[in-house]
Amino acid sequence: MATSGPDFAMTDFLGALTHAVRPDGGRPLVVHDDELETIPPGAVPNPTTLRIAGKLPTSTFELFRQVIPPGESSDMQRHYHETVHFVISGEGHSEIQDAEAEKYETVTWSTGSFVYTPPWTWHRHYNDSTTEPVEFLTIENSRLLALFGLARRQSAGLATFDEARARFDTPASDFSGGDQ
User: Fold this and answer.
1) Could you write out the three-class secondary structure of 71-102?
2) Residue ranges per domain, the chain?
3) What's the CA gap between 74 and 72, in Å, rounded?
4) Topology of domain 28-171, per CATH?
5) How many CB atoms lie within 10 A of CB 96?
6) In what order do the strands lie in the sheet with 153-155?
7) Mean per-residue pLDDT over the chain, rounded
8) d(CA 95, CA 123)
């Protein structure tokens, strides 16, 4: 099979992915909200609650339902995969690193918004309400990158951009430590 050039065919490429998950009794076509699997507290370094639709037979993307409590935020993180957060309810803002590592952009969002996080950019999502939680449907292509051995995620916890860069943006950290 050609991996590039004039003989490359996307159908051959996709057909060659060996980690395909087929629907069956354990991997159904429909998963209900009450069947989402909660990621254990402490497994993510922030106060959000993440529940994954992990039983769906997806092989290239992940789906999460994420809740950020009132007045809280997600952790400062970056990852190789792209992510889109659909805001189910609530309002807040996100700080997302722009192309220049020293700067970031603040974007605001509310119920019905889609928030895009580009690959390998430091970012953090904030709930601006002091009384109501924010709830996201989070969609990421992490499984696709994992198929190619390219899954990588770093979390700096509740750090600032400067603290995250100081901790991770050194030549040694490109290949060791701190990854999740």
Assistant:
1) CCECCCEEECCCEEEEEEECEEEEEEECCCCC
2) 28-171
3) 7
4) Jelly Rolls (2.60.120)
5) 19
6) 104-110, 91-97, 123-127, 77-79, 153-155
7) 84
8) 5
Instruction: Tell me phi and psi for residue 144, to 5 degrees.
Output: -60, -50
Quick check: 156 and 169 in contact, CB under 8 A? no
One-character DSSP codes across the chain: --SSSTT--HHHHHHT-TT----SSSS-S---GGGPEEPPTTSSSSS-EEEE-TTS--SS-EEEEEEE-TT-B---EEESS-EEEEEEE-EEEEEEE-SSTT-EEEEEEETT-EEEE-TT--EEEEE--SSS-EEEEEEE-HHHHHHTT---EEE-TT--HHHHHHHH-SGGGGTSSSB-
Total-model pTM: 0.78
pLDDT in tens, 88-130: 999 999 999 876 667 889 999 999 999 999 999 999 999 999 9
**CA-closest candidate to residue 126, choices 151, 158, 83:** 158
Name which of 165, 147, 136, 174 is nearest 77 in CA terms: 165
